[in-house]
Design a protein that fits this description.
Layout lengths: L4 E9 L4 E3 L6 E3 L2 H7 L8 E12 L6 H14 L5 E5 L5 H11 E2 L5 E4 L12 H13 L1 E2 L2 E2 L4 E5 L2 E4 L4 E2 L8 E2 L7 E3 L3 E3 L13 E2 L7 E5 L6 H8 L6 E6 L9 H12 L3 E6 L12 H9 L2 E2 L5 H13 L4 H8 L9
This protein binds aspartic acid.
Length: about 350
């Protein structure tokens, strides 16, 4: 008989564990023991569960690189002891955390499943109970002693997604996440149906946790009417090394001379510019329209079908690894963890 899987639940905060403050009425995180009290069935799940709680617990809107560093360290320190990890996390920035962790944890061969909920566990109609229990089951799932999902993923409302392909698209529905450019990794109903062909294969190499992230980055979202002043200010931010340029459609932007000149000057100063689309689905194709061909000539890098969340995470990660110039561009355009096609 197979040994029971051992799972480490890492509690970072988020709605799933929040309680309403009786004085102010606002939602604030509460401790992990109370989570257990709300889901007594966890005791009868056939795997051993330990927990690690961050202190302080945070609303994920307060997420930042030093928290990510700590999260990667907890996983690294416990990697050999556990078969899988469940990260309880607020949904607001979950797609960013899943993306950045996928880059930080090179050679990950065990499941890291992020989940949370739209309603706290203490609320009768909570979605957190099912999300949490199924996330544990997925983190524990093995076949011939090999984890079925050895990658960073998000489980939310009956679907398992590749973490770095996911976006939060709805602040109201229980179905809060989408992965438009990559198929779901599993669908959950009566059975958990894993889509093996889309799940990363383990490489059985030793985990390498890269913890340096460089936050000298920015996102510049285009809109009709964006002024030269705004573009100039953003591209000239002191210390800026990388920028994610959110363009229209398949990577299109204005062809105004001033705009292209600002971009060219930034590239000349050594700022790496990555072009991603504002569309939720589809891909950047530099050179398809006249409105993107000049950017290619200037040296703007095409982001293919990467999400903005994964793009900014990848930029912080690669800059943190001290990549720059051509080497950085080469890494940006190839999939490192299945984040782009
Ligand atoms: N504001 C919360 C958070 O991201 C929302 C949630 O958990 O769904 O922490």
């Amino acid at each position: 008989m197979e040994n029971k899987a051992s799972i480490l639940v890492i509690y970072t905060g988020g709605t799933i564990g929040m309680i309403r403050d009786s004085e102010t009425g606002v939602l604030k995180p509460f401790d992990f023991d109370r989570i257990y009290r709300h889901i007594p069935v966890l005791e009868s799940i056939p795997c051993s569960i330990d927990s690690y709680s961050f202190d302080p617990l945070i609303d994920s809107s307060n997420m930042n690189p030093s928290f990510w560093k700590e999260l990667a360290t907890v996983i690294e320190d416990n990697y050999e002891t556990y078969d899988g990890f469940v990260v309880l996390h607020g949904s607001d920035t979950m797609a960013y955390t899943a993306s950045v962790l996928s880059f930080m944890l090179e050679n990950l061969n065990k499941p890291v499943v992020l989940t949370g909920s739209q309603l706290p566990l203490g609320v009768v109609r909570t979605d957190g109970r099912e999300n949490f229990i199924t996330a544990i089951e997925i983190a524990a799932a093995r076949e011939a002693d090999t984890p079925i999902v050895p990658e960073v993923c998000i489980y939310f409302e009956n679907k398992l997604f590749r973490g770095n392909r996911t976006i939060k698209f709805n602040a109201e529905n229980f179905e809060a996440f989408l992965s438009v450019n990559y198929p779901v990794l599993a669908e959950v109903g009566v059975h958990i149906k894993y889509k093996r062909q889309y799940i990363r294969k383990p490489n059985f190499k030793k985990l390498k946790a890269h913890k340096d992230l460089d936050a000298n980055v920015a996102i510049l979202k285009l809109f009709p009417g964006i002024s030269k002043h705004v573009v100039n200010c953003i591209l000239n931010i002191d210390g800026l090394k990388g920028i994610i340029l959110e363009t229209y459609g398949s990577g299109n932007a204005p062809t105004d001379a001033w705009f292209l000149q600002e971009l060219e000057d930034a590239v000349q100063r050594g700022v790496t510019v990555m072009n991603v689309t504002q569309c939720k689905g589809g891909s950047v194709e530099l050179g398809r329209y006249e409105t993107s061909i000049s950017m290619e000539k200037i040296g703007v890098v095409g982001g293919s079908d990467i999400t903005t969340e994964a793009a900014i995470s990848k930029m912080m990660f690669l800059l943190g690894q001290r990549y720059s110039g051509r080497e950085l561009e080469e890494k940006l355009i190839i999939p490192l963890r299945g984040e782009m096609s």
